């Protein structure tokens, strides 16, 4: 642990002193000025605005990586620079962040997490999990990833993480794991997000980008894809990604424990002598009610964001709620993580609106026409991942990249179904930056891993995921149509 800490302190990328922080801030400013004054490609209708937006994105990402400013403060710069530099007006920018259902969803999810923590329900749940599970530390890790994976096949990734994460945090709390220092803590919290990401690609119901892809295949290629046809190609990709992700996490962050040393007899005695309190029972009620509502959201005609937002008043009901007043609840919500998420949304919206993402994708895809089909699949996957960094939204990334991938396949003779799935899977398996998906934002908010930790493992898994997609597609015969 001490050696690991020394390595972190010697990092040339992370600012540690005030002087270093200002140097990085100056470099970020230079990045912004250079990019925004580069000549804009003729294909971009909003050339000047597009280059300025690209400069803002690059400079803020640099600040995130170097940690020259708190991550939420760097995110605030997005809201400031966009109207200040004429990319958009402040009213539209603000309403496009805090006026979206993404903001409402996170408010609700973080409230549920706070309810589980304050009531002691998450701790009790973790104690019960440890009481009946193996002492091998790999079992809770893979188990939590698998549960998140299964949930995410049928409900949103965000909802799956929101349901599994309290159990994981309870385990880490019982182990006295230190946030940002415990490698096992990094594996567990990142693992829950990764599990949901790979589960989400397995079925059409998993994530919004899957539905978007099915619609685009129908409109642009005349292909109607059934639930089973989707799973035949995507489930193998998802399950292999889950297993490989389980291995990669342990390579990137070697757990400091091989066995969870817990006195099960003492734990059993403690649970017996301390029955569930009213607060814990109420937290359990809210938790189960939210899970059921998530699962039945379509039949109920309610959005996941609305269901999540309804948790807030229920958490502070007089005499029943876990929190006595709003101020108490307010202190338990990670506002910085919400800021990261909503700022990512506005960046993605503007990049799509100005045609910046489409231009980048088109420029890169054109030279691929001469490559072998398997190489094309691998390249399409990687390119979509890169575009996903700009857009910070799975659905928007799919909306931009999948139609381009379909058109590319039709013009070059590449298999349309295989190429479209490659782009779709890539749009859903974005995991380099925390801001690329709310799924990562939720686990990041618990504080057990840093942005650099996420990028370190995410970069590796991005390349591996592209390889997994390619191998599975080739093994299935590079299908041009659903089978």
TrEMBL record:
User: Which InterPro entries does the UniProt record give?
Assistant: SLC13A/DASS
**Gene Ontology cellular component annotations, sorted alphabetically:** plasma membrane
Q: How does it sit in the membrane?
A: Multi-pass membrane protein
Q: What is its main location?
A: membrane
Any one Gene Ontology MF annotation carried by this entry is: transmembrane transporter activity
Organism field: Candidatus Lachnoclostridium stercoravium
Name listed for the protein in its UniProt record: Anion permease
- The residues the entry assigns to the signal sequence are none
Chain segments annotated as transmembrane: 21-42, 48-65, 72-88, 94-116, 137-155, 161-178, 187-207, 227-249, 278-296, 302-326, 338-357, 377-404, 416-437, 457-481
One Pfam match: Na_sulph_symp
* Compartment(s) of residence: Membrane
Which domain of life does the UniProt lineage start with? Bacteria
Give the record's keywords alphabetically: Membrane, Transmembrane, Transmembrane helix
């Amino acid at each position: 642990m001490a050696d690991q800490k020394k390595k972190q302190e010697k990092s040339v990328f992370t600012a540690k002193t005030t002087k270093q922080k200002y140097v990085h801030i100056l470099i970020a400013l230079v990045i912004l000025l250079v990019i925004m004054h580069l000549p804009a490609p003729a294909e971009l209708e909003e050339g000047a605005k597009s280059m300025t937006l690209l400069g803002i994105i690059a400079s803020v990402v640099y600040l995130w990586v170097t940690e020259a400013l708190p991550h939420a403060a760097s995110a605030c710069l997005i809201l400031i620079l966009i109207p200040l530099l004429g990319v958009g007006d402040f009213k539209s920018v603000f309403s496009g962040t805090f006026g979206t259902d993404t903001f409402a969803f996170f408010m609700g999810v973080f409230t549920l997490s706070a309810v589980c923590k304050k009531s002691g329900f998450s701790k009790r749940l973790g104690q019960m999990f440890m009481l009946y599970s193996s002492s091998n530390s790999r079992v809770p890790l893979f188990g939590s990833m698998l549960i998140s994976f299964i949930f995410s096949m049928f409900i949103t990734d965000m909802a799956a993480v929101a349901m599994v994460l309290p159990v994981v945090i309870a385990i880490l709390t019982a182990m006295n794991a230190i946030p940002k220092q415990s490698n096992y803590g990094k594996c567990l919290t990142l693992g829950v997000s990764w599990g949901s990401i790979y589960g989400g690609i397995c079925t059409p119901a998993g994530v919004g980008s899957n539905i978007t892809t099915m619609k685009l295949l129908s409109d642009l290629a005349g292909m109607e894809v059934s639930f089973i046809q989707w799973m035949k190609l995507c489930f193998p990709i998802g399950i292999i990604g889950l297993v490989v992700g389980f291995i990669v996490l342990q390579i990137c962050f070697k757990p400091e424990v091989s066995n969870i040393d817990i006195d099960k007899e003492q734990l059993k005695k403690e649970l017996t002598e301390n029955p569930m309190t009213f607060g814990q029972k109420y937290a359990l009620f809210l938790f189960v009610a939210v899970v059921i509502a998530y699962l039945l959201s379509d039949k109920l005609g309610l959005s996941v964001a609305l269901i999540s937002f309804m948790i807030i008043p229920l958490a502070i009901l007089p005499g029943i709620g876990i929190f006595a007043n709003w101020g108490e609840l307010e202190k338990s919500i990670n506002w910085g993580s919400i800021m990261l998420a909503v700022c990512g949304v506005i960046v993605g919206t503007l990049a799509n609106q100005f045609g910046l993402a489409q231009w980048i994708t088109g420029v890169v895809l054109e030279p691929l026409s001469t490559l072998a089909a398997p190489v094309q699949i691998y390249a399409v996957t990687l390119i979509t991942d890169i575009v996903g960094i700009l857009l910070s939204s799975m659905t928007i990334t799919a909306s931009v990249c999948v139609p381009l991938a379909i058109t590319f396949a039709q013009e070059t003779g590449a298999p349309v179904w295989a190429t479209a799935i490659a782009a779709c899977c890539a749009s859903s398996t974005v995991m380099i930056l925390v801001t690329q998906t709310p799924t990562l934002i939720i686990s990041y908010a618990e504080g057990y891993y840093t942005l650099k930790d996420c990028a370190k493992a995410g970069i590796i898994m991005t390349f591996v995921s592209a390889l997994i997609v390619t191998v599975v597609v080739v093994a299935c015969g590079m299908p041009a149509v659903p089978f």
